Amino acid sequence: MLTSNPIRSINQLTPAQFLALCYLAVIVLATILLMLPAATVQEGSLDFSAALFTATSATCVTGLTVVNTSTAFTLFGQLVIMVLIQIGGLGIMTMSTMIAFFIGKKISLKERLIIQEDLNQFKISGLVRLVRYVLAFTLIIEGIGALLLFFRFNQYPFWKSVYFSVFHSISAFNNAGFDLFANSLEGFTGDLVLNFVVISLIILGGLGFAVLADLYNTRNIKKTSLQTKIVLSISLLLIIFGFISILGLEFTNEATIGELPFGSKILSSLFLAITPRTAGFNTIPTADLRSSTLFLLIVLMFIGASPGSTGGGIKTTTFGVLIITVWNLVTGKKDIEVFSRQLEKEIIFKALSITILALTLVVFVTMVLTISEKMEFLPVFFETVSAFATVGLTTGITPELSTFGRILLTLTMFAGRVGPLTLALAFADRKKNNGFYHYPKEKIMVG
Length: 447
Known about the structure:
mainly alpha
């Protein structure tokens, strides 16, 4: 009788399949841990759907919750969530490589290919060095963030202040949005120090480790790579556009920033322009935002952070490639050019594929949830995009979801963290063209 070899089967997995399997394994283990009686303050244990949803949300650095993190979980449960945020934000293979460094293990070619997939990089060379940068940047940035937050949380007892500082620094840098205040950061709307510390952590975590390494090594924006230039340009444009739009749309909304002093209006608008990229913290009640503002946030969430970062979404570079392509076509250029460089067609096709797959997923999940949950369209649409882009912002409908709705959003968060294209490649039966023949070309009318 033939017997299958599990080790051989695992070795035959593609990097995309192995990566998806790793994230799934972490989520399963985390679900079991969060279902332990020691993880929750209630009698007995957390129900399966709530534990699975929370474990996925933390591992996928989303921040959506069906139970309140600060009141539903014990210190043990919160520590499990914090560790999951760190693992999910840095990437499972980055964490595995860190362990390999400590025990002196060499990184194999197969492992390098999986790291390449996890960090969304072009080539294998320099990956181990990039992982070292990732770990160094993370420790330094999260450490500085925690130190600054510690002085802000000095109204609490010493160890509680330390714990709150570390937890929220990790949550902000990894763009997770989990908090221990029961209402996100709504109690710190006009707090200049806390707002700018969290904003800085979100931006640094969302730029991407390759960009941070490039900036560190070159020390000159003009000498940076094309990816760094596009990431910085698109990120800055989205922040400015989001800030001006939100300030204008919410300026007279008494339920959000209408009654705040002018300085607090500026600060709140800036925070709200940055947090959809993809952090999930909020300093003003999201449910009270105007419909036009919610739709703007949906667009910002869908675009998300940058590749190789702790954030989700289709990524700033994907959005940038699409905008650049359209602009070049409208202006009549034969090649797709930007910053005195020419983009390869393969990159354009990949950007289109990611966007179409993401839109298809979001539209399908939104349509199903509007049927199953009997809720209004805009809150459901907002929740779906927030889950896919691993943001964590919500209008408050998350705890009201049915078990089916929770599972559907859990799958959406998983797809958003692993990546729609990576997930599609993991399940697709890819057939390579042998290159010996090509079909004849024929034109069709579009537009």
